[in-house]
Specification:
The protein has one domain (4-323): B-lactam Antibiotic, Isopenicillin N Synthase, Chain (Jelly Rolls), CATH 2.60.120. α1 (20-33) links the parallel β2 (12-14) and β3 (36-40). The strands form 3 sheets. It has an 8-stranded mixed β-sheet. α1 packs across α4 (133-158) and α2 (46-60) crosses α4. It contains 7 helices and 15 strands. The protein is of the alpha+beta class. The longest helix is centred in the middle third of the chain and has 26 residues, at 133-158. It is globular and about 60 Å long.
Length: 327
């Protein structure tokens, strides 16, 4: 049976608003309903966002040989070719019809923390080939993290926690924060044949900020067990982030807040998007928040260490690096 489809109406959170109670109320409603919402007036200028997208396109316009020189490493930094990632193996014929590029927290190799799974030096294109590219991405990485922290403070209030609960050193004080550039090359998706731009999945972690161009494709499914599944289009909103919650926040909140199934369907157009994954520190232990449990509603999940959980999810969804011949 074919999927049903409609357009989703998401709450819009204005980060410049001084009316914090209203912002928290809108956010809480969105987090309980679908875990998806728009964020506007976030502090990153439209001009700079356009420059980031231009630089992203400049990278993906390089030859495959040039891009493969930066093939992702064991630290999950660098280039991911088309079909490298399979987000919904039960329903996908091949991998996702998208290519990507991972950029994490930059640490020099002599920093003791650089040995951690999701820290260390990034892979960068040669500055002669893409001048200013690294500087642009590093600046965006820093600015997006600040937006993520602002949203985390509203989430804390929505969960009846101290406003700075997530700012603590063991959570977002020393975060894993991953910027990913994505390019969908114009493949037309066909769910009936298992062909997707990005297979249906929920995000792994805490919080995702998604910047998009004006090409549609993102869809969400609020009830994954419904037959048939109802998929709602999430339309791009100029100047806004689409924000969604990940599995770790669903766990933290004892399923009060939701990490929702979503996918990307290609419609024949080139599409560029830039998700930014805001994740707690490696050693953060995620266990049910005190405000989200009671005698009637005990914790549904055991505690889990963030680094171990995230690494396992990456292993499950990405091709083994040994499948690629060395370039």
């Amino acid at each position: 049976m074919a999927d049903c489809k409609k357009v989703s109406k998401l709450n819009c959170i204005d980060l410049s608003s001084q009316d914090i109670p209203t912002s928290v109320s809108l956010l809480k409603q969105a987090c309980m309903d679908s875990g998806f919402f728009y964020v506007t007036n976030h502090g990153i200028s439209e001009e700079f966002m356009e420059h980031v997208f231009t630089q992203s396109k400049n990278f993906f316009h390089l030859s495959l040989d040039e891009k493969m020189k930066l093939l992702r490493n064991e630290k999950h930094r660098g280039y991911t070719p088309v079909l490298d990632e399979t987000l919904d193996p039960a329903n996908q014929l091949h991998g996702d019809h998208k290519e990507g590029f991972y950029i994490g927290i930059e640490l020099p190799e002599d920093n003791p923390d650089a040995q951690r799974t999701f820290y260390g030096p990034n892979l960068w294109p040669d500055s002669d080939i893409l001048p200013g590219w690294r500087q642009t991405m590093e600046k965006y990485h820093q600015q997006a993290l600040e937006v993520g922290r602002k949203i985390a403070r509203l989430i804390a209030l929505a969960l009846d926690l101290d406003v700075n609960f997530f700012d603590r050193p063991e959570i977002l004080g020393n975060p894993i924060a991953i910027l990913r550039l994505l390019h969908y090359g114009g493949q037309v998706s066909d769910p009936a044949k298992g062909i997707y731009g990005a297979g249906a999945h929920s995000d792994f972690g805490f919080l995702t900020l998604l910047a998009t161009d004006n090409v549609s494709g993102l869809q969400i499914c609020k009830n994954k067990d419904a037959k048939p599944q109802v998929w709602e289009d999430v339309e791009p909103l100029k100047g806004a982030f689409v924000v969604n919650l990940g599995d770790m926040l669903e766990r933290w909140s004892n399923c009060i807040f939701r990490s929702t199934l979503h996918r990307v369907l290609g419609n024949g157009q080139q599409r560029y998007s830039i998700p930014y994954f805001v994740e707690p520190s490696h050693d953060c232990v995620v266990e049910c928040l005190p405000t989200c449990q009671s005698v009637q509603n005990p914790p549904k999940f055991p505690p889990v260490k963030y680094e171990e959980y995230l690494l396992q999810r990456y292993r499950e969804t990405h091709a083994d690096l040994g499948t690629y011949s060395k370039h």
